[in-house]
Amino acid sequence: MDLSTSPLFERLQRAEHVLLAGAGGGFDVYSALPLYFRLRAMGKQVSLANLSFTVLDRVDGRVLAPGLVEVRADTQGPEHYFPEGVLARWFQTRGESVPVYCFDKTGVGPLHAAYVALQAELGFDTVVLVDGGTDILMRGDEAGLGTPEEDIASLAAVDALSLRDKLIVCLGFGVDAFHGICHAHFLEAVADLSQRGAYLGVTALLQGMPEVDRYREAVLFSSEEMARRPSIVSLSVVGAIAGDYGDKHRTSRTQGSRLWINPLMSLYWAFDLEAVARRCLYLELLRDTNTSWEVGARIEAFRKRHPSKPWEDIPV
Predict the structure, then answer these.
(1) DSSP 309
(2) Which domain does 86 fall in, by range?
(3) Does residue 189 carry a pLDDT above 80?
(4) What predicted TM-score, i.e. pTM, was given to this entire model?
(5) Beta bridge pairs of residue 166
(6) Which of 76, 132, 151, 186 has the fewest CB atoms below 10 angstroms from its CB?
(7) Is pLDDT of 270 > 70?
(8) What is the pLDDT of residues 77-107, one digit of tens each?
(9) Alpha-carbon separation of residue 220 from 109, 204, 231, 254 (angstroms)
(10) Closest Cα to residue 309, out of 277, 281, 287?
(11) Integer Cα distance of 100 and 265 in angstroms
(12) Distance from CA of residue 93 to its chain's centroid?
């Protein structure tokens, strides 16, 4: 490794088939799109998945296993909230048929079983969990954990898989402030992972990169298709890529709140997944959970028993 190399892409170079999976639900799979197009250009086989907030019982896609549904462009789902179906339709407008595999929002046990089923179906050898935000790095003693139920369930489920490689990528530094994330604690986590040799650096998403331009197109398409509930994270990142700064709003959903759109939002932060999992103080408590409610209850119980670090402002 030297200054001209990317540790993230050095790791991904070894992969044959990569599953890019949205870790935290919602639109997280969209944050994987720049990686998706770059990996395809590298000649890799790439698949897309997402821990879904869509009610999968209302989706008529092919059921591969309990809690695992294949969504294609012609798959019918809820009218006002179906990011995965919208993404598949966007690919169709480009003349491509790209399925998005949806994991139900469950506990770690069923989610891991769904990942095992998808691995048997597709044969991927590498997983990259993609977080739209940075709260997947919170280990449990920070001032705020954001919305950890989905992220840490995904982390635990993938950690238990037998694979060639497992990675994490975060996109959207700063967007989690609304959910109480202390970004000084995120940077502390990055420093700790760097000591462990598990920090794989940052990659800038810049205007004019074809992968980034396609990501922007997909986000804007989804915002038109889902005008009532566009993605705050994705629109914030697209704004940062375009050079927005400060309290800039690209959706009425954020009106009344103060935003800090900034260039750090447009960086991919990459990490070794197993090291992130080992660092999480409560992950082992979630291994045998069956429902999302159980995950949330055990995290809440952990937080009550363990003191949290005080909030820390970034001193710059």
Answers:
(1) P
(2) 8-224+265-305
(3) yes
(4) 0.96
(5) 127
(6) 76
(7) yes
(8) 998 899 999 999 999 999 999 999 999 999 9
(9) 35, 20, 10, 16
(10) 281
(11) 25
(12) 24
